[in-house]
Structure formats: C-alpha cells, structure tokens
Amino acid sequence: MDLQKQTEPRASVAELRASDADRDRIADILREALAEGRLTAEEHAERVEGVLAARTVGELDAFVRDLPAAHHRHAPAPNRPPAGAIPADPDDSMVAVFSNSVRKGRWRAGRRIHAYAIFGSVEIDLSEALFEYQQVVIKAVSVFGNVEVRVPENVSLRGTGGGVLGNFEVDTLDSADPDAPVVYIDGWAVLGNIEGRPKRGRIVADILDRVHRKVDRSLRRHLDR
Known about the structure:
Layout: H1 3-6, H2 20-35, H3 41-53, H4 57-61, E1 92-97, E2 100-103, E3 108-109, E4 112-118, E5 121-125, E6 130-131, E7 135-143, E8 146-151, E9 156-164, E10 167-170, E11 182-190, E12 193-198, H5 205-223
Parallel strand pairs: 1-4, 2-5, 3-6, 4-7, 5-8, 7-11, 8-12, 9-11, 10-12
Helix pairs in contact: 2-3, 2-5
C-alpha cells in the first residue's frame, strides 16, 4: 500500500480543469453585466477573450469576481422530488432481457422513465434530449444487468438506491441555473450495475436560449434609455 500516494491532497475546485459548460456560464454572467451597464463594451470583449483562454475554474471565476451575479446562489436540488410531483405511472419504459435497449439522440424525456435490465443492458442518454418538465425520475432495476444514464453537464442530478452484490453509483450535480432540469435516479442493482454521470461537453441548449433571450431583452432596454 502506497501511504504517500493516499495522503496526497486533492485538487481544489479552483484548480479543476474548466469545461465548455463552465465557460458558457461565465460568458452568460459577462453578457448580463454588459446589458446592465456594469461593463463597457471594451471590458466585456477583453474578459470574454480571457474566458476563452482560461484553463481552470479558478481562472474563470476571476473574470466575474467583481460582479453581483457571480455571488448569487440558489438552494441545491432536493434528494427526492416533492411527494405527488411525479406520477406513479411511467411515460416511457425500457426493458432489456438478454438484450440491449438504447434511447439517445433528440428525444422528449417524460416525467417518469422505468428501466429494467435482466441479463441485459439499458442505456438512457439525455445529453441531447428535450426536457419538457423540470423534474425527471428514472426508476432503474438491474438484475445481472447494466443500466447506464448520461445527462448534460448543466442539469442537476441526484441518486437514491443501492445494490446487493452490485453497484449503484450516481454522481451528484448542481446546476448554476435554478430553472435547470433535475434528474432523479432511483434504483436497485442485484448482481448488476446502475450508474448515472454527466456527458462531458453536452449541455441543455434551451436553458442557454432562455438566458440569452433574457439578456437580449435587458440589453435592448439599456440601449433604449
């Protein structure tokens, strides 16, 4: 056992490599600051150029540290949706018995999705999906099988479940946008595997569209003064 390796400190959040979603988030704050008159056009252009060249999260945060929007925080998504918020009957079911079932690409995600993998594999890729509802529950059951869920980087993700001689692993994500979709994975793995992770580089585009429209309206009001 390498004790020295175990005691090495983990990188802080500021030292983490920045993703495209991180750059988009900072660019949105800068765009809104321009619309509100907090930045001049020259300052905005200079900072956007720096955002594109930044490599770490800490470098990105430096460009918005003096702006109010950077310090606004919202409550994280709850671990489970409120009682009665999601119907008990599924909008969509995926079953793989000694087979594979895949849902990916541009598709409409319902409020509840059931996935059953019995000696099979289920793949649910939400990275390009259309979210008609803010809350999506995925009930996953794996028996000698595999259920894999991939989500965009800019949504919130929660997982509740476990395994019997199996693996249940869901990353926790918190979106910077309070209106972003929240995906809940509720599952149980028996000699199987259930996992949920973000798909790097993928974002929910319509969230950005809403932000852009809001900023464009603010910019027009500012220019009409």
